[in-house]
Design brief:
Mean pLDDT: 96
Radius of gyration: 19 Å
Strand content: 15-25%
Order of helices and strands: HEEEEHEHEHHEEEHEHEEH
CATH architecture of the largest domain: 3-Layer(aba) Sandwich
Number of domains: 2
Shape: globular
Helix content: 25-40%
CATH class of the largest domain: Alpha Beta
Length: 336
């Protein structure tokens, strides 16, 4: 499949060049050109900063979420590859002040290894940094083994809620505890209908018969929990919501914040239909869907499919989820 780039060696840097040229909220960092930072930084001696390192190829996450009320920096790795520990350390040094930093780490092997190493190096260099490991994909490890799960689009709840709280001045310890609570209240499940094409190989990342859907597909094309027959989306969403609520039951009468995320090749028409079916499935169980986020935010090139993420929020989490922000790609969230 044809891809539009100048060369494999330049594709990430050319993308970042274009990104910082388009969006006034961001610029390149001083320590390395692969670091994207807020153009108007917060006072890092008074307020905790947030950053994450991740492989490219999943845009708009995470550099699209750098800005006021969310991330202070994103360290950008090669395509589908975690940035090195040294590069993440440069990102920490770029934004960490006396108030300390939280390094968000989506739980995938390279991110965990390099992010953990960077946090240790940062502490040795005199920075106050706490690594927060994020995991929400119910298909990647069974119930009761949540800490073994991989990160999925539900981690966006952590980005936004912690970003808003940090902007308001919450201290490092309580902010970290809030992040753990959001993580523990979040569950995600994905479904893929067609593969993305790797820009490195030009080949499909997996194969799938026309009449089948993969349940539990990861953001790099990792296998999930099985296959389902292609059919009306209502049945697929019902199956997914049932699995999410079986993994973490929610009492009838509670509110649930919802993310419906497109994987890159799914139309808005389809995503809005998925959200409507999700809302219907929740209502049938006595639950109300609130403050939804629907769109294409965590992608795997042009992979067809979507994920559903559910957060059972406290009142404070919901307030922070809906707080104003100013970034290139994170949407305004409305409660009603």
């Amino acid at each position: 499949m044809k891809k539009l780039f100048n060369s494999q060696e330049r594709m990430v840097d050319d993308m970042i060049d274009g990104f910082v040229a388009v969006y006034p909220q961001v610029k390149r960092g001083e320590n390395d050109s692969r670091i994207v930072v807020r153009r108007q930084p917060k006072d890092s001696d008074a307020k905790v900063t947030l950053l994450i390192g991740n492989g490219s190829g999943h845009e708009p996450i995470a550099m699209g979420f750098v800005g006021e009320g969310l991330l202070d920096a994103n360290v950008v790795g090669d395509v589908f590859a975690a940035p090195s520990a040294d590069l993440i350390l440069d990102g920490i040094a770029e934004v960490c002040g006396a108030a300390g930093s939280i390094l968000l780490i989506s739980q995938h092997s390279g991110d965990v290894i390099n992010g953990g190493a960077a946090a240790m190096l940062a502490e040795e260099a005199g920075h106050t940094v706490r690594p927060l490991f994020m995991y929400d994909d119910i298909s990647s490890a069974p119930k009761g083994e949540e800490t073994e799960r991989r990160g999925a689009p539900g981690t966006m709840f952590i980005y936004k809620i912690l970003g808003a709280a940090a902007e308001e001045g919450m201290a490092l310890g309580p902010l970290f505890e809030l992040g753990e609570a959001v993580r523990d209240n979040t569950r995600t499940l994905a479904a893929a209908v067609s593969p993305g094409i790797s820009p490195l190989t030009g080949k499909a990342m997996f194969s799938l018969p026309d009449d089948e859907i993969y349940l539990g597909m990861g953001v790099h094309g990792e296998p999930g929990i099985g296959k389902a027959k292609y059919g009306p989306v209502s049945g697929l969403v019902e199956t997914m919501v049932e699995a999410l609520l079986d993994d973490r039951p929610v009492p009838a009468g509670d509110a649930v914040a919802v993310i419906v995320n497109g994987m890159g090749g799914t139309t808005l028409m389809e995503l809005l239909t998925v959200y409507r079916e999700t809302e219907t499935a929740l209502k049938a169980r006595g639950l109300s869907a609130v403050a939804p986020m629907v769109g294409t935010y965590v992608t795997t090139q042009e992979m067809g499919g979507f994920s559903i993420s559910l957060l059972t929020p406290t009142a404070e989490m919901l307030r922070l989820w809906c707080a104003p922000s100013d970034t290139p790609h994170f949407p305004a969230i409305k409660r009603d």
